[in-house]
Design a protein that fits this description.
The protein is built from eight helices and eight strands. It has helices at about 1-20, 25-30, 30-35, 70-75, 85-90, 90-95, 155-160, 165-170, and strands at about 45-50, 55-60, 60, 80, 115-125, 130-135, 145, 150. The chain is about 35% helix and about 25% strand. It has one domain (about 25-170). The N and C termini lie far apart (about 65 Å). By secondary structure, the protein is α+β, with helices and mostly antiparallel strands.
Length: about 180
């Protein structure tokens, strides 16, 4: 009887491990985001965009290197907060972002300097917000961090925030 119980416990542990490992790190990272954007747009949602300008002294030498999202939030040159009224007009673009359109850069999560950092948060109606999407990148053509996973740069990630920025802000942050 003990052998049967032990065998069942081992089988259950094996199946649980198999089920937990069926998603890629990117799919796991975007699971909550996908749950939210596939339905109706929540009433209490906000997008916050932080940007920090980089001043180039020479072609490959800038005044800012290895900037963390925390540093961008603390010392930003651009801060834009977008509420549900403006997000509603572009909700379809947010629904296009799925794990299938992103390509993971590597299995190992690396470091991406953050000059642009944006956060999509959903609220519970009582002032508490949950981050469902965090994106940071340095400049076009380089890898991007999406919810802690390094992915290849995708234009859609810029398209999510570009409508809420002026032409000058997009140019200063190298969004085009």
């Amino acid at each position: 009887m003990k052998r049967v119980v032990i065998a069942l416990v081992c089988l259950a542990a094996f199946l649980a491990g198999f089920a937990l490992g069926r998603y890629s790190p990117l799919e796991n990272a975007l699971e909550r985001y996908c749950e939210v954007v596939q339905g109706e747009m929540p009433e209490d949602i906000r997008l916050t965009i932080y940007g920090r300008y980089v001043y180039y002294i020479a072609e490959f030498w800038s005044t800012n290197t290895h900037i963390t999202p925390e540093e961008v939030m603390a010392e930003h040159d651009t801060l834009i907060t977008v509420g549900p009224e403006k997000l509603a007009a572009h909700w379809g673009t947010f629904q296009e972002l799925q794990p299938a359109v992103l390509e993971q850069a590597s299995e190992k999560q690396g470091y991406v300097s953050a000059r642009v950092y944006y956060v999509l948060e959903v609220g519970d109606g009582q002032g508490n917000y949950e981050k469902i999407l965090e994106v940071s990148w340095d400049k076009p053509g380089e890898n991007v961090m999406v919810n802690g996973v390094e992915v290849e740069n995708v234009e859609l990630l810029c398209d999510l925030v570009a409508p809420f920025m002026t032409y000058d802000e997009r140019g200063s942050l190298y969004l085009f």
